Automatic annotation (TrEMBL), chain A:
One of its GO terms (molecular function) is transmembrane transporter activity. Its main location: membrane. The chain crosses the membrane at residues 32-55, 75-97, 109-131, 249-265. GO terms for cellular component: plasma membrane. Signal peptide: none annotated. This is Energy-coupling factor transporter transmembrane protein EcfT. Keywords: Cell membrane, Membrane, Transmembrane, Transmembrane helix, Transport. It is a multi-pass membrane protein. It is found in: Cell membrane. It comes from the Bacteria.
Automatic annotation (TrEMBL), chain B:
It is found in: Cell membrane. GO terms for molecular function: ATP binding; ATP hydrolysis activity; ATPase-coupled transmembrane transporter activity. This is Energy-coupling factor transporter ATPase. It comes from Candidatus Paralactobacillus gallistercoris. Its main location: membrane. Belongs to the ABC transporter superfamily. InterPro entries: AAA+_ATPase (IPR003593), ABC_transporter-like_ATP-bd (IPR003439), ABC_transporter-like_CS (IPR017871), ABC_transpr_CbiO/EcfA_su (IPR015856), ECF_ABC_transporter_ATP-bd (IPR050095), EcfA_1 (IPR030947), P-loop_NTPase (IPR027417). It is a peripheral membrane protein. It comes from the Bacteria.
């Protein structure tokens, strides 16, 4: 079974770098933007440039590049499958080797490398977002960015609260899952052996208590929230104020320049 | 003294169940600490939830500060009441300590500037200022309950309701939380209402209400209740440590007085006794 702690993706590393201090809204916007930009690039020059931009951003965050590379490890199988798919199922260009439906072509090699680079760049950039921003700040930023949609009767505040409670509950529920598993193991349930059917059946002994438990927790949390004066739809203030600074605007402008540079590099 | 809570002829029952609360009448004076004790299922938690307006009783009246509680004014009344629940994990709403303390203030639409100040003050009052940015998963049960206390203090309530607030803590955590509750009570002139199974907590109260099967069967001072041996054995209530010690000493014919003592007073008594001998 995969160790949850190995997953660097979605974790936060405290720090006080330029990237850490940026407004989470700016970071969120930039990450979305970067993912889009990655799909615009389609040649070596473009990718080299984007890789340099990514490295520069990582440098700004003062987090070691090793952390990011380690973060790739759990995704290794996924990347490998993507590479193999691209390698053997892309047609066009010079054919080097063919066997049944599998073909190895020059186009295949090029696109598999490009796809991998694309994949890694996206992972690095989104990891950079989560490593430098607390989940809470991300939830706040999402709520703030969704704010305009409140005009179309989207319950933005409720979505924001749900998101933040979900994030807050993740470690608590993970702890409980570990406990329930240990308790069931003590009663002789084997989670790691047997065929798919047997394992699925073992999983039921984890899932049902976890569901019942979350229902109970939700009821109690709702009661506690009511006792503390939470009414949905009522105007509230926010403890965390997001501060958009000049540097955020600057970062946004600099990143916007990527597209013209990419277009220029494409010729 | 003015009574802050006045309950008259309160009845409550969940649908298709037998009555949980049956004609409850009592008052709580301003600044008083009232402990409510009783066995599981005696209705004491239900009573506390009725007082906070979380449950609506079928009949009867609850007066808070001479205002009759109803559906319209409950949110307003609740701003002056703080409630702490049993499970530290299930009442932690936000992802960090400071955020959680601010939750009730956010709900009351307190301006952010003032909120900062009140959160800071409340965290200092429970000694959790150093943990302001920690996540609930990084705290012990006792620390989480202290955060819950800070959340209530930040609301600046007049009345604090404790629903078995220390029952899921280890002995050290329990002692510390009780000590902080005692300090907070003095500092902020709080009226306390606590539902508890913990004998040490009940002894700290000014008055004890014993509930059994939805009825109030006793309403008296801890001294009167915990020296009443027939009552204790009848209700199968635990005997406080000093009373147990007194009983043992009597077996060895050591002269002990009838009155009730807490541990400090009892130690003092033993000192005077030994100097006399």
């Amino acid at each position: 079974m995969m160790n949850i702690n190995q997953l660097i993706f979605g974790r936060y590393l405290p720090g006080n770098s330029f990237v850490h201090r940026m407004d989470p809204r700016a970071k969120l916007l930039l990450s979305f933007y970067f993912v889009l930009v990655v799909f615009i690039a389609n040649d070596w020059c473009g990718y080299l440039f984007l890789a340099l931009v990514t490295l520069f951003c990582i440098k700004l965050s003062r987090i070691k590049i090793k952390v990011f590379i380690n973060g790739l490890k759990p995704l290794f199988v996924l990347i490998l499958i993507t590479i193999l798919m691209q390698l053997f199922f892309t047609s066009g260009g010079h054919i080097y080797w063919q066997w049944g439906i599998f073909t190895l072509t020059s186009n295949g090699i090029i696109s598999s490398v490009l796809i991998t680079v694309r994949f890694i760049l996206i992972i690095f950039m989104s990891t950079l977002l989560t490593l430098t921003t607390t989940p809470m700040a991300i939830a706040d930023a999402m709520t703030a960015l969704l704010r305009p949609l409140a005009r179309f009767h989207l319950p933005v505040d409720e979505i924001g609260l749900m998101l933040s409670i979900a994030l807050r509950m993740v470690p608590t529920l993970a702890d409980e899952a570990t406990q329930v598993m240990a308790a069931q193991r003590a009663r002789g349930i084997d989670f790691n052996h047997g065929n798919l059917f047997k394992r699925g059946k073992a999983l039921i002994s984890l899932l049902i208590p976890m569901f019942v438990d979350s229902f109970n927790q939700a009821t109690n949390l709702a009661t506690a929230m009511e006792a503390r004066g939470y009414q949905s739809g009522k105007p509230r203030t926010h403890y965390h104020q997001l501060h958009w600074q000049k540097t955020d605007t600057m970062a946004l402008i600099v990143m916007l320049l990527i597209i013209p540079v990419l277009v220029f590099l494409r010729k | 003294m003015m009574s802050i809570i006045k309950v008259t002829h309160l009845n409550y029952q969940y649908e298709a169940h037998k009555k949980i609360l049956n004609d409850i009448n009592f008052t709580v004076e301003t600044g008083e600490w009232l402990a409510i004790i009783g066995h599981n299922g005696s209705g004491k938690s239900t009573l506390l939830r009725c007082l906070d307006g979380l449950l609506t009783p079928q009949s009867g009246q609850i007066l808070i500060n001479d205002t009759i509680m109803n559906d319209e004014n409950i949110w307003q009344l609740r701003q002056k009441m703080g409630m702490i629940f049993q499970n530290p994990d299930e009442q932690f709403v936000r992802a960090t300590v400071a955020d959680d303390v601010a939750f009730a203030l956010e709900n009351a639409a307190v301006p952010p500037q003032l909120m900062q100040q009140r959160v800071h003050e409340a965290l200092a009052a429970v000694g959790m200022l150093a943990y302001a940015d920690k996540a609930p998963a990084q705290l012990s049960g006792g620390q989480k309950q202290r955060v819950a206390l800070a959340g209530v203090i930040a609301q600046q309530p007049r009345l604090m309701l404790l629903d078995e607030a220390t029952s899921m803590l280890d002995p050290d955590g329990r002692r510390l939380v009780l000590q902080i509750i005692k300090q907070l009570r003095q500092k902020y002139h709080l009226t306390l209402l606590s539902v508890t199974h913990d004998i040490d907590e009940a002894i700290m109260a000014d008055r004890i209400l014993i509930i059994n099967d939805g009825h109030i069967i006793k309403n008296d001072t801890p001294a009167a209740i915990f020296t009443d041996k027939t009552l204790l054995s009848q209700l199968n209530l635990p005997i406080p440590y000093t009373e147990q010690l007194k009983n043992k000493l009597r077996q060895y014919h050591v002269p002990v007085p009838q009155g009730f003592y807490d541990i400090k007073e009892f130690v003092k008594y033993l000192w005077t006794l030994s100097s006399k001998m």
